[in-house]
Description:
By secondary structure, this protein is α+β, with helices and mostly antiparallel strands. 29% of the residues lie in helices and 31% in strands. Strands 6-7-8-3-9-10 form a 6-stranded mixed beta sheet, sandwiched between helices. A 5-stranded antiparallel beta sheet has the order 13-12-11-14-20. The longest helix has 25 residues, at 350-374. The mean pLDDT is 91.
Amino acid sequence: MGEHIIELVNIFKQFNDAHADRPVLNNINLYINRNEFLTLLGPSGCGKTTTLRIVGGFETPTRGDVFYLGKRINDVPSYKRNINTVFQRYALFPNMTVEQNIAFGPTIKKWDKSDISKQVQQMLELVNLVGYGKRTIDTLSGGQQQRVAVARALINKPDVLLLDEPLGALDLKLRKEMQYELKRIQVESGITFLYVTHDQEEALTMSDTIAVMNEGVIQQIGTPEAIYNEPTNAFVADFIGESNIMRAVMIKDYLVRFLGCEFPCIDAGFGNGREVDIVLRPEDIELTEPREGRPVGEIASSLFKGVHYEMRVVCGDELILSHSTRYFEPGTKVSIDVLPENIQVMEISTSSDTIIGAKRAQLQNLYRENAGGDD
């Protein structure tokens, strides 16, 4: 187990505004290990940025404690915490060169000038901006500005770097490139990163650990692989990637019934004959010619996505999303199959009720579209 550099214990945060009846954070418990890349992931308004601001000292929790290397720091101001922040807009100084921007913190702290110059060059190397030191900020691309902002924060040698959606202003191609750059910088610098985003791909690409948040509560904490492959509830399953969430019945341990057929699975302990939720990832669903013992549906649509076809299959009162390298013409009858290890069984939740209701509405809209087309 790594050393806990930051610990949040029973953090509760409530603002005195129109939404004061609902807490922004509701008893958050979280620790961050030294040298870890931890991402807070969730939709807008889930509390992730407020959590980051509490760690940085820009907000004070209503209740609960913040610990830094085992020491309570609730009342320690942000400038006295060895924690730096990179915001989405970078906040670079347009009247300064790249070197002057990076050197700003050490200059204010009155470091030795020769040491500042040496450290600036090291930062330029770290962020792949050697030769850009004399340029002004307005001559740089968005990705280059983002790297200057990271270098300006890292030169102060913080124990923790906070990043609040820093890639949000970049175009898609540049954002993907910067995901790998940020992870490389984090590994080479050895500094703990606490990253905030609503982008699932960013979180899965860069993180050692992901904390999925919703409505001020951490829904699940785990590795990217665990979060994707073993979501603990319907919200996490629906938010992380694409998924099929539906109601099922646990016949007995290791056997579940859905889409009118029984499927072996690897889950146990839910009880016999109990209603549950299941999650099937689109890439885990195998479509075949109709065969006995497996649900039969009809291809409603098929879109080419480059590396696979994205197909919607109407099966009874369910609309199933499948990704396959094999093409099926709309209107084709197919059977649906899935391996036991790719069926994720979960407890029923209010989130799943909402998600399943939305899927049923999509199916009804599809029926209406088809009916209209026949007129």
